[in-house]
């Protein structure tokens, strides 16, 4: 397990069905869901300039890498991908076709100039806060300029981004991401995010509601609110009061057509009373919560600057389960943070046993240059990290399997998403994010239907319509 719920692996933006677009853009997305969302918004901005999205890199007039910097060697991965792209560009050039190459996302933000220096093939380097200027950067690049846009923008990028066409939204399916918050002020000592994404910024309520209404009107049924620290979102409400994520969820639940809401990723310190009340009072807020704890040791949590104890986390989970007993928890864990002893690691194993997670993502600590953790004493031996990771993952996998097995025979709702791989099969999404597979058509795409879970697959559930 190397990617998190928050990390999505590598994906391409769905090809555009909108006609009359003359040029093609290929976007490769690394990392978290926010990058997936950003890639779509970049594609939308470029669509307004005549670019259609393609999944065929050889056919693209513009190639964009939307990069992630959370893990070690992230930059190296980008440079080797650029090597491959250089060959594609040369091949296209031999047929008289021009290719503009851009690097976006967190590696672009962190490496900036260095990318320009090391990879002459790159025409554009653009950060996560400035990608509304992408169409302009592409125009300049086509005129022969190399463009570096990594300053934190003073203007609100969302105000400047064109809205996607309803047809483009429809093409992306019945689930959608909606970024409500960006950046992080928490400064966990292992994490690069506060440096790459900058400090916490919340989008205004009216902007978020308008975007959610547009998504719902284009057929989206499930919206996942995104933020590096999504539950730190705060803004002035239409009632003039200070709103937090809880108030926002109550308001979004009123939008006709929105059938399901989720949010990710959150910090334990920002789970306030209204947000917990939203889990109690909003049936459309899915009973699934990604709430990373990272470690079960108070000493390590302190060294990580998480600013809560293991028991604070346990008590918080008790409060959430008290109001929403069926909530399924997902988490992130780091083993081998500097100074982590056997006893500290056992505390992590203990909190996992106490809390139980249906899904979890665990990593060996990797020092990120520029973060305080990298300069700490007593780095843990790689072989010890490996052993601890193996033990932790074995426990987490067992908990995940136990949860899936416990679902067999139970009924659940499923959002019908698309036809399955086998003829006659249909794939939907369970309340717990896991895909559900049915052997018959239980309704139309976008319907939320009741099913009974019949068996579990590796990472999916099989069900029958009720
Ligand atoms: N080493 C290991 N894991 C990390 N994460 C973030 N930074 C590091 C690092 N330096 C993990 C955390 C976070 C998730 C997105 O990635 O668990 O919650
Ligand atoms: Fe990184 Fe911590 Fe901020 Fe999450 S809360 S983005 S782990 S600094």
Automatic annotation (TrEMBL):
Subcellular localization, as worded in the UniProt entry: Cytoplasm
Catalyzed reaction equations: 2-thio-N(6)-dimethylallyladenosine(37) in tRNA + S-adenosyl-L-methionine = 2-methylsulfanyl-N(6)-dimethylallyladenosine(37) in tRNA + S-adenosyl-L-homocysteine + H(+); N(6)-dimethylallyladenosine(37) in tRNA + (sulfur carrier)-SH + AH2 + 2 S-adenosyl-L-methionine = 2-methylsulfanyl-N(6)-dimethylallyladenosine(37) in tRNA + (sulfur carrier)-H + 5'-deoxyadenosine + L-methionine + A + S-adenosyl-L-homocysteine + 2 H(+); N(6)-dimethylallyladenosine(37) in tRNA + (sulfur carrier)-SH + AH2 + S-adenosyl-L-methionine = 2-thio-N(6)-dimethylallyladenosine(37) in tRNA + (sulfur carrier)-H + 5'-deoxyadenosine + L-methionine + A + H(+)
Ranges of residues in domain MTTase N-terminal: 23-143
Highest taxon above the source species: Bacteria
InterPro entries membership: Elp3/MiaA/NifB-like_rSAM, Methylthiotransferase, Methylthiotransferase_CS, Methylthiotransferase_N, Methylthiotransferase_N_sf, MiaB_methiolase, rSAM, rSAM_horseshoe
Binding site for [4Fe-4S] cluster 1: 32, 68, 106
Quaternary assembly: Monomer.
Protein family: Belongs to the methylthiotransferase family. MiaB subfamily.
Protein name: tRNA-2-methylthio-N(6)-dimethylallyladenosine synthase
Organism in which the protein naturally occurs: Aquibium carbonis
């Amino acid at each position: 397990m190397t990617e998190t719920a928050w990390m999505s692996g590598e994906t391409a933006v769905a090809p555009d069905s909108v006609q009359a677009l003359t040029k093609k853009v290929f976007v490769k997305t690394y990392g978290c869901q926010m990058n997936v969302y950003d890639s779509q918004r970049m594609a939308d901005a470029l669509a307004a300039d005549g670019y259609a999205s393609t999944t065929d890199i050889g056919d693209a007039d513009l190639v964009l890498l939307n990069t992630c910097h959370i893990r070690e060697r992230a930059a190296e991965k980008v440079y080797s991908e650029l090597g491959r792209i250089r060959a594609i560009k040369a091949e296209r050039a031999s047929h008289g076709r021009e290719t503009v190459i851009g690097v976006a996302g967190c590696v672009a933000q962190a490496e900036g100039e260095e990318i320009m220096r090391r990879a002459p093939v790159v025409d554009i380097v653009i950060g996560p806060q400035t990608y509304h200027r992408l169409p302009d950067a592409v125009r300049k690049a086509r005129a022969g300029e190399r463009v570096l846009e990594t300053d934190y923008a003073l203007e609100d990028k969302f105000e400047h981004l064109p809205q996607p066409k309803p047809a483009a939204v429809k093409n992306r399916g019945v689930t959608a991401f909606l970024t409500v918050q960006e950046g992080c002020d928490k400064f966990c000592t292992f994490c690069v995010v506060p440096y790459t994404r900058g400090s916490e910024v919340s989008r205004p309520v009216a902007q978020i509601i308008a975007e959610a209404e547009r998504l719902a009107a284009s057929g989206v049924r499930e919206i996942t609110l995104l933020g590096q620290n999504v539950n730190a979102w705060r803004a002035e409400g239409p009632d003039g009061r200070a709103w937090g994520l809880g108030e926002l969820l109550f308001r979004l639940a009123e939008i006709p057509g929105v059938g399901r809401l989720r949010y990710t990723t959150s910090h334990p310190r920002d789970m306030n009373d209204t947000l917990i009340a939203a889990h109690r009072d909003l049936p459309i807020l899915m009973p699934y919560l990604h709430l990373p704890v990272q470690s079960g040791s108070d000493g390590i949590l302190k060294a990580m600057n998480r600013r809560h104890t293991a028991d604070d986390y346990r008590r918080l989970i008790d409060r959430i389960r008290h109001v929403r007993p069926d909530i399924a928890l997902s988490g992130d864990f780091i083993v081998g943070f500097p100074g982590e002893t056997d006893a500290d690691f056992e505390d992590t194993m203990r909190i996992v046993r106490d809390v139980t997670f249906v899904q979890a993502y665990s990593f060996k600590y990797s020092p990120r240059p520029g973060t305080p953790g990298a300069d700490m004493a007593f780095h843990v031996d790689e072989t010890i990290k490996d052993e601890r990771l193996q033990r932790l993952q074995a426990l987490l996998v067992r908990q995940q399997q136990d949860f899936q097995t416990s679902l067999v025979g139970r009924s659940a709702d499923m959002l019908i998403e698309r036809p399955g791989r086998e003829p006659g099969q249909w794939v939907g999404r369970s309340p717990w994010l896991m895909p559900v597979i049915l052997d018959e058509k239980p309704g139309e795409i976008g319907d939320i239907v009741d099913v009974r879970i019949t068996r579990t697959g590796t990472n999916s559930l099989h069900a029958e319509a009720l």
